[in-house]
Amino acid sequence: MSAKKRTMSGALAGFLAFIGMSVVAGILVTAAVTPALALSGMAASNTINVFENMPDYLSIDQLAQKSNIYAKQADGTPVLLASFYEQNRVEVSSDAISQFAKDAAVTGEDPRFFDHGGIDLQGTVSGAVTTLAGGATRGGSSITQQYVKNVLVQKCEALNDPEARTTCYDDATEISIDRKLKEMRLAIGVDKNYAKEDILRQYLNITGFGGTVYGIESAANYYYNTTAAALTLPQAASLVAIVNNPVRFQLDKPDSETNGAANGYAANKVRRDYILGEMLEYKKISQADYDAAVASPIEPVITTSATGCQTAGSSAFFCDYVTHILKTDPTFGEDEDARLANFRRGGYNVYTTLDLDLQNAAVATLDENVPKSFTNWDVGGVVSSVGVGTGKVLAMAQNKDYTQDPNQTGANFTGINYNTDQNAGGSMGFQPGSTYKVFTLGEWLKEGHTLNERVDSARKSNWGTFTNTCGETSFPGFNPRNDSSGENSPNYSALQSTIGSINTGFMGMAKKLDLCGIMKTAEAFGVHRADGGALDNRLSSVLGTNEIAPLTMATAFAGIANNGSTCSPIAIESMVGADGTELPVPTSTCTQSVEPEAAAGMTYAMQRVMTSGTAQASNGSTSPRVPMIGKTGTTDDAKDTWMSGASSKVATVVGVVNVSGKYKSQRSTRFPSGIRASDARHRMWPDIMSVANAKYGGDTFQEASNTVLRAVQVAVPDLRGKTMAEAQSTLTAAGFTFADGGVVDSEMPAGTVASTDPAGGSNADRGSTVTVSSSNGTGVVVPDVVGKTEAEARAILSAAPYNFQVATGEQAVTEAGQNGKIVSIDPGAGTGATPGSTVTIVIGKMAAPAAAPGGNG
């Protein structure tokens, strides 16, 4: 029951009862039985309530410890990025604790620790007398009892529910006889089940040393910049002094009036010297040791063990990404609260995929090329690199300083990771521009089209109706122009459109595809909106208007480079628990986004982008050279600019983006370094990929097959005599592009098709342009004069209505019947021609017989 104010007679009665308790205390110590409670003055009915359902003892469990996130150097050496803790504790073994600290704890807190059975009755009775007389429990707790209390408090701290945690804590720290007796019972159980050295070790590991510092190892680190094993005698006594009253005796408040640096940390020194005296009395130290220790000043060396990703410096945003994985991935717990608690209390060592060589290159090139802030422009610079075939996030950097402090509000500060999705601490994403066109290319090849197949790429005010099985089909008013005025061919091939990033070429490709299919191909490469919404599949999306995180695009480009197999990104390579046990971590899942043959066509085209297309500036500056693919991207008004690409080993996306608000056209803006903003991408990408190529190398990409490269040959339909409208629809249905060849003289009825180029019946590349000419109705058909004599042929051809000019030619023949006869005519019989034009007739001619051979006689 709770402690209450008592009358003097009541207190005296309780005191006498407690005297009686001490007489039979051996029973309590030996058997840990509850009847002894009756001797405390409590009613018999309370006895059952106190111990009902109580365990016999508290097990020595793993304590809450700080967790660490590491990167690895090239030789495998771990480099600490950041630590996280609610309690700054590093649990250590007994042999890693100075004997001075052990002796100081025992002599200062519980001199009879090694002799009693978990509770020191002499000290307990002394404390209980004070409690019973004044109504409050204080003093007299053994080290084992203090350990029990700390364990109960720690179990409360581990609860995720704030209300339950508060209730639990109040119960564990309640000032009452009930709580004290429960504590004694559990202490006896602990003493029965564990060796004294184990209890002392865990006591020193669990106890608080002020603030968030817990355990002797972290206390040694924090207050004296040393280890628990290396503590000197005065340091050990000074730290143990803090345990008695952390608020009063801790050493990180130099301005304290009672325990500050100016007065030599007087309060701590008094308690320290008392402990040293106890150590001398119990013969744990010599007189000389005591004299030297008491004479030494208290000189703390406060060494902060900061918590959080801000300690990770230029890798802070990657660190932030890792913490979001630890909080959200079900591998680490059933819900977010449990996952976070597990991480902050679990003493995990998390080894990440970060490649410090690539990371340092990314940070250096960002610092050189993109300022942290810029007048009237919230400029962002981003880099994400992913391992091809592994999904490992190798680099992640941006041009800002990381902070989660709301008081740090400069333009150079942000807590938002521009490289990741919004639900992973990132932004709402950025439009990738033309880098997104690679997914239309992938869908084009998936559907059996080829790189050299041509499309209608002339600019139009209205592109008409599109196929879209999961959305809109008509987009009036959307008529994108090409980036350069010289890009105006009416029939670009898919390859040309990719090399030059021709907008109208991709419109023409999309016209022959399902917009929903393009979206699904993007999704197959792991592409999704950064804000968690569904990908837009309207026509404008073909040109990259979905807001996507850079890491997502890097993952997709790694998938293209991996023969079309996309591996989900991972940032954690391994994780080890506090006890050295290897723990499960999320693994990368690889899925075939497009078949290898289609992927080979994509990489063929994207290699040409690097060598002769829009990414030549990045390709030429990369050294050493390995086979590489790439695609540039520029959004409307050059608001955002991108360079994305990969070797067969590493994919990298770099970008200069507008984070928010007003923006500047990057083509007309120069950074303080003097470089044009839109050119920064072509300086950063080679810097990073040069390091990647030197470290990882690069193999040739799969060779594209003829099926992917060549245009499919199909027959040109015979359109003569059809209307021009019929001709256009027939050609479109056959996969050709219609072009109007104007009006020509022809025997065909006026306004109908006079001729096509290529001619009807011949084969041509599917998707190529067929030029159609209409008849003016004034032409004639060349008559068939083959087999007639020259005189007969001339008479026919020169007479009305032909009035042809006749030209002649000869051709050797072997048959007598062809000698002197017409063997061919140009234009051919049946061909439309203009009256009065020239027709050439070819006359057959046999060679003269050879002379008979002569003799000598």
UniProtKB/TrEMBL annotation:
Swiss-Prot/TrEMBL keywords: Carboxypeptidase, Glycosyltransferase, Hydrolase, Multifunctional enzyme, Protease, Transferase
Gene3D superfamilies registered for this protein in UniProt: 3.30.10.20, Biosynthetic peptidoglycan transglycosylase-like, DD-peptidase/beta-lactamase superfamily
Keyword Transferase in annotation: yes
GO molecular function list: penicillin binding; peptidoglycan glycosyltransferase activity; serine-type D-Ala-D-Ala carboxypeptidase activity
GO terms for cellular component: outer membrane-bounded periplasmic space
Positions of the UniProt region annotated as Disordered: 612-641, 755-775
PASTA domain residues: 710-776, 777-845
Catalytically driven reaction(s): Preferential cleavage: (Ac)2-L-Lys-D-Ala-|-D-Ala. Also transpeptidation of peptidyl-alanyl moieties that are N-acyl substituents of D-alanine; [GlcNAc-(1->4)-Mur2Ac(oyl-L-Ala-gamma-D-Glu-L-Lys-D-Ala-D-Ala)](n)-di-trans,octa-cis-undecaprenyl diphosphate + beta-D-GlcNAc-(1->4)-Mur2Ac(oyl-L-Ala-gamma-D-Glu-L-Lys-D-Ala-D-Ala)-di-trans,octa-cis-undecaprenyl diphosphate = [GlcNAc-(1->4)-Mur2Ac(oyl-L-Ala-gamma-D-Glu-L-Lys-D-Ala-D-Ala)](n+1)-di-trans,octa-cis-undecaprenyl diphosphate + di-trans,octa-cis-undecaprenyl diphosphate + H(+)
One Pfam family of this chain: Transpeptidase
One biological process term in Gene Ontology: peptidoglycan biosynthetic process
Ranges of Polar residues composition bias in the record: 612-624
PANTHER family: BINDING PROTEIN TRANSPEPTIDASE, PUTATIVE-RELATED, PEPTIDOGLYCAN GLYCOSYLTRANSFERASE
Protein's UniProt name: Membrane peptidoglycan carboxypeptidase
Organism per entry: Cryobacterium roopkundense
Organism lineage string: Bacteria, Bacillati, Actinomycetota, Actinomycetes, Micrococcales
